[in-house]
Amino acid sequence: MEISRLMVVLGGVADRKMLVNVTSRRRFEEALAAGEIVRVSRGRYVVPAVQKGTELAHAVTGHVCLASAALAHGWKVKVVPVRPQIAVPKDRRLPATTRRVMEVHWIDLAHTDVEGLATNASTTLAMCGRRLPFDEALSIADSALREGFSRQALLDLADAAVGPGSARLRRVARHADGRAANPFESTLRAIAAGVPGLSVEPQVWIEGLLQLNVRCDLVDVRLRLVLEADSFEWHGDRAALRQDARRYDLLVANGWTVLRFAWEDVMHDPGWVASILVATVQRTEQSLLATSPA
């Protein structure tokens, strides 16, 4: 996979070690030289749209916002915007040629809402929670918590919110969890959140018989159900294949149901993923009912 495509899969932000491991040192250096990735700090790289968004925001005296601002803060996103998302004052008039190269959001921002040429962390999370689809907003909130934003601060921000989108923001804050590994896993958890009877927790260690001791992506302890978002940190050797096979065999032998989901299905066919989850939950609930004491 080309690094430009890989960066989109990884949420728009990645470290050098990841990119080199998945591709090669030569391909990494070529991508950097070609401008397919941009260095923002030691060992950390983002999609070039971040730099382009900053340049456009400066040109129109606006501010990078929403997912574009999340990327500027170094947070991973489910969807890398095709055009940079720029906030401009409500009374600002922009020519059609300018609007075609950016996604314009007319909103009046206070000086306390911005940091440089982007909305600050709190404003970015508030805007994303109010305006983006649940899975996209949750991916950004999870990443923000993973990078050090306080969960209590997010909850307080949501509790104080009023007006359009405030209920959506509170839902995102309630579900946000910094233990989530990446947007792939966050999106799978967002789908699971809409399935009746299913309550999953990210990055749970499971121990059991036959020396079972593994950390799983998403776990519903009550249903003994494990959801795995198969990682993009590929391992191409037989030893890794054997390790993965043993991992799942041990979980099944200990009475766990394991569902493995591909990135393409989670990101592009959530209805199919939800249908699998609904059917599995219903079957498991029926089995629990049949085996419970009368």
How are the SSEs placed, and which strands pair?
Blueprint: H1 3-9, E1 13-15, H2 16-22, H3 25-33, E2 38-41, E3 44-46, H4 49-59, E4 63-64, H5 66-72, E5 85-88, H6 96-99, E6 103-106, E7 114-115, E8 118-119, H7 121-131, H8 134-146, H9 151-159, H10 166-175, H11 183-193, E9 201-208, E10 212-220, E11 225-229, H12 238-253, E12 257-261, H13 263-268, H14 270-291
Parallel strand pairs: 5-6, 11-12
Antiparallel strand pairs: 1-3, 2-3, 4-5, 7-8, 9-10, 10-11
Summarize the structure.
The mean pLDDT is 93. The chain is 49% helix and 17% strand. It is built from 14 helices and twelve strands.
3D structure, described in words:
The protein has 294 residues and is α+β, with helices and mostly antiparallel strands. The protein has 3 domains: 1-40, no CATH class; 48-178, no CATH class; 185-291, VSR Endonuclease (Endonuclease, Chain A, 3-Layer(aba) Sandwich), CATH 3.40.960.10. It has 14 helices and 12 strands. It has helices spanning 3-9, 16-22, 25-33, 49-59, 66-72, 96-99, 121-131, 134-146, 151-159, 166-175, 183-193, 238-253, 263-268, 270-291; strands at 13-15, 38-41, 44-46, 63-64, 85-88, 103-106, 114-115, 118-119, 201-208, 212-220, 225-229, 257-261. A 4-stranded mixed beta sheet has the order 9-10-11-12. It has a 3-stranded antiparallel beta sheet with strand order 1-3-2. Strands 4-5-6 form a 3-stranded mixed beta sheet. Helix 12 links the parallel strand 11 and strand 12 (257-261). Helix 2 (16-22) crosses helix 3. The termini are far apart. The mean pLDDT is 93. It comes from Nocardioides glacieisoli. This is DUF559 domain-containing protein. Pfam families: DUF559. Residues 217-276 form the DUF559 domain. InterPro entries: DUF559 (IPR007569), Restrct_endonuc-II-like (IPR011335).
